[in-house]
Amino acid sequence: TKNTPEALEVLTSKKTLSLFKEVGVMSKIEISARQEVEYETYILQTQIEGRVLNELVFSHILPAAFRYQQSLSDGIISLRQLYGDEGMKASESRLAVLEQLNTHINGTKQVTDAMVQARREANLLVDLKEKAETYCHNVKPLFEEIRYHCDRLERIIEDKDWPLVKYRELLFFK
Prior knowledge:
The chain is built from seven helices and no strands. By secondary structure, it is mainly α. It has a single domain (4-171), classed as Four Helix Bundle (Hemerythrin (Met), subunit A). Helix 3 (28-83) packs antiparallel against helix 5, helix 3 runs parallel beside helix 6 and helix 5 (92-123) packs antiparallel against helix 6 (128-156).
């Protein structure tokens, strides 16, 4: 098995039910109840992870990215106003960084919005197995995409402007 919903499905397989019946550990009803609780736990943990990720993106990461975006934009405009045509050449590096920043700001926002929508759709489902599978296959993969863009933003944005602990700082945390 590769994920929690698939692993939980094994609990009610014929082989597992037969084994538990033979050794008298749990009845089919008890196993099904346990499976239901595990599905609910998985769903709840994934919901919380999605909410926290959404909160981090909109309360910390994007605001920091927008401030840095504004700072770079102001610098580019100043160089071009101050130096004219020479300012165009002088601002090429900043413009390249700004373009990378814009790509990852847009990517973060778009994928986070998609994750929120996927969570809404999953929450409409009543069947716990189906809901868990939907969270597993439609919501969780978006966490990695969001992380990809946020990791890139972390690399681009100046340390003083980044609101969270950076990965390299975790290595030397005192």
